Each structure stands twice: as structure tokens, then as C-alpha cells.
């Protein structure tokens, strides 16, 4: 369950990296945008200043040239055009008299007079920004024009110079943020992994010495909780062990006395009643054993702190069953040479799982067919017995607590519940199948342990 949640839940590290990168990119773009606004204002001031300087410098030159050529007061047919280098002019100008006639113009200036009035200062239309300057007696006016497209081109080039580096800068900053954030949250990941290992089989305290001070209170709280859990589990296990001893002894004593009574009542009409008492005590003993196993399973005995050899446990359980059977050949262990099964699980808990499954197979299986236990290298463990084919509904019913299938044999209906609980603690699962693997009939219980 924790693995499923870890895959579906959003990652704090991923969200932190994403949002830091987005915020950083937004701030960079905002800074560039504000820079462009300031750049536009500064460029306008620079261009307007250049217009003014150019016009004022042209006034004495134009007046001197006009006097030299005696064009002041000349007719429009004597219009002069300034020489050009052949390149596009960024600034164009016209020299006009008081009547508005063009006396001199730059090569790219229009032949028609500018729309700008003959008044010193700045003026603009949709295409140009103008600056008009006049000589001292205001007989000659110099009008210099700057096209707005020149300013827009300068602004575009400035924007490209600012934005293009961001295409490289943002990914580089994103990788730097990823590196820094991953290193910063590494202690959080280590603490998470430590907490994930804590359960009924591992209640050791977390080492908080290497954690930053922000995480130390969390580790301390988890350690206190683990201490309380460890104390509660120890008390519960001690109670279970004591209860097992206290219950088994009086039941065994009562059963022994009843069996003696049955032997003494041979031929007595009360023998039948004594047989019923013996059968009831036998069922009570079996039920008490199952209830105690279930209690131990719910106390969390499934895991161990280190890997153990479960193949050895399997051999011991099968041998123990065979010693107590009238027909030991009915239980067959198929254990290939070299097959091993190791896992960090409780030997006692795994033995309880095996005993319940083998016991169910012996009790509920077809009496004249063998019960086979298969151990493959690394798992799984398969237990098969003869039986009619069971439907999926019947297989689901027998997994429920106190659930029983189509059988006349005695039982408590707790065996598979105990197995499911213990295998859940062992990070494993029980798979029931009918027919058994490689057969057309029979029943199979398969134990699969993950992360061995």
C-alpha cells in the first residue's frame, strides 16, 4: 500500500523544482520586460537628443552654404540636394526658408516639404519624429526627421539581445535548482525511507544525529511512537504466550480425563455421551489453537530483522506432519537439490502459514490422493491436494474468516485468514487456484514472497 501511495502521490521535490524554475523564469521575463520599457524611454531620449543636436549643428552650416551659393531668396527651381554615400540615411533633413520652400534637402528626404510646422522644437506624425531649428533672424529653418521604424528596430535588437540568453539561462538555472533542491531534501528522503521500514518486525529507533534540526522533532516523535509500539507488542506477545499455555493445559487435562472415561465406559450406555464430550473438547482444543495463532498473527510476528532459510523451516514442518500421520507417504515434499528460499520473515510465522495450509490440504483433500508440497528455487511454495474443481466464488468464500467450502470435514474456518494476515506482514500473498497447476482437478495454495 505504501508503495502504491508513493507512486501516485505528488512529489514534494518535483513540485519544488518546478515552481522554483517557473518563478525564476517569470522573474527573469518580468525583469527583461521592465528593462525593455526603460530601454524604450531611454532610446527615445537619445534619439530626440540626436535630432536636436543634428538640427542645431546643421543650422550654421546650412546658412553658410546658402550665403556662399547665394540661394537665399532664390526660386524653387534652384533647389539643391546634398550628396549621398549611397547607404540608407537614418536621419533625413530639409532646409527651408520662411515661406516654407525647400532650399536644401538630404538625399533620402522627400521633395515635398515636411508636414512639421516652421517652429523650433519637437513635432511628430505617424511616421517621423521631427526637430526644427532656426538661425538667429529666423530666415532659415532646418528640419531633421527620424523614422519611428529606426527606433523600433533598435528596440527589437535590444529585446533579442536580452531574451535570447534566457533560452540558455533558464534551462541552466533549472538544472542548478534541481541539483540544489535534491541535495537539500535528501535528508527528508532518508527519513522517509527509515519510517517506511518501521512496523511490527522493525521497531528500532531512527538515528537522528545526521538529520538537520528541522527534521529532528519528527524523528524524535517517531522514536517515541516506536518505543510505545514496541512495549505494546511485547506485552501482547507475552500475553499471547501465557494465554496459550494457560488454555492448552486445562483443555488437554480435560481431554485426557474424558478419554480415560471413554475407555472405562466400554459397553456402558453412557459411552456415546462421553464420546460426544471428547469430540467437543477436541474441537475446542483445535479452535483455541487457531484463535491463538490468529492473535499472534494480528500482533505482527511476520517480519524479522534479517533473512532466514525458509527451506529449512519447510523441511521441519513437513517432517513433523509425517511423524504424526498414520500414512506418512500421503504427504510428499518435492524439494529439488539446490533449491533455496530466503527472506527476512519470522521462522515461527512462516511455520504457522505452512502448518495451516498443509493441514487444510490433508483434512479437506481427497483421502486417497497425495498432498504434494513443491519448493522452487527462490519461491514460490505450492501445496496441492486432490479435490473436485472449485469455482471462483467458492475460492473467494473460503478465504473469508470462518468461511468453509463444500466439505464434511471438521474445521474452524480460520486457517486461511491466519495465512492471509501473516503473508501480508511478510510482503507476500496467497494465491488459490483450482484446478491445480498441470492438472485437470485438484486444489492449489501458492505462497509468493516479494522482494526476497
From TrEMBL:
Gene Ontology cellular component annotations, sorted alphabetically: plasma membrane
PANTHER family (UniProt xref): SENSOR HISTIDINE KINASE YKOH, SENSOR PROTEIN QSEC
Name of the protein described by the UniProt record: histidine kinase
Subcellular location as annotated: Membrane
Domain spans labelled HAMP: 182-234
Top class in the EC scheme: transferase
Keywords of the record: ATP-binding, Kinase, Membrane, Nucleotide-binding, Phosphoprotein, Transferase, Transmembrane, Transmembrane helix, Two-component regulatory system
Catalytic activity: ATP + protein L-histidine = ADP + protein N-phospho-L-histidine
EC number: 2.7.13.3
Pfam family, one: 2CSK_N
Superkingdom per UniProt: Bacteria
Predominant place of localization: membrane
Domain Histidine kinase: start-end pairs: 242-452
Taxon lineage: Bacteria, Pseudomonadati, Pseudomonadota, Alphaproteobacteria, Hyphomicrobiales
TM segment ranges: 16-39, 159-181
Entry-linked InterPro entries: 2CSK_N (IPR013727), HAMP_dom (IPR003660), HATPase_C_sf (IPR036890), HATPase_dom (IPR003594), His_kinase_dom (IPR005467), HisK_dim/P_dom (IPR003661), HisK_dim/P_sf (IPR036097), TCS_sensor_his_kinase (IPR050428)
Annotated membrane topology: Multi-pass membrane protein
Recorded GO MF terms: ATP binding; phosphorelay sensor kinase activity
